[in-house]
Amino acid sequence: MTEKRSLASMQEEVDAYIQQFKTGYFSPLAQMARLTEEVGELAREVNHYYGEKNKKSDEVEKTVAEELGDVLFVTMIMANSLDIDLTEVFEENMAKFNQRDAYRFERKDGKVHEAD
Questions:
Q1: Which SUPFAM superfamilies match (predicted)?
Q2: pLDDT tens digits for 75-91?
């Protein structure tokens, strides 16, 4: 069984990978273009697996998981270059969603928002 990693340790590993190259981190705009490209590739795979579009016979076989992994990797590169702690951002976002959207959708526990 493999050991679970934290976002912080993954960001550190990605940084170590990038630091071995003279180029280092690309500009935020270049990274945004790369992230957009990876999200497009993810969308293409989702469409192949769950949508109406079939793969062409000469297309390389990829998976949704592989493309999602690429999106995560590029997201970490961008976060590192902008000195963003993804763990901190995740915790802030979860607090926001748990508060703001606690009753946005019908809940399995049957609880409903009580008016203030």
A1: all-alpha NTP pyrophosphatases (SSF101386)
A2: 999 999 999 999 999 99
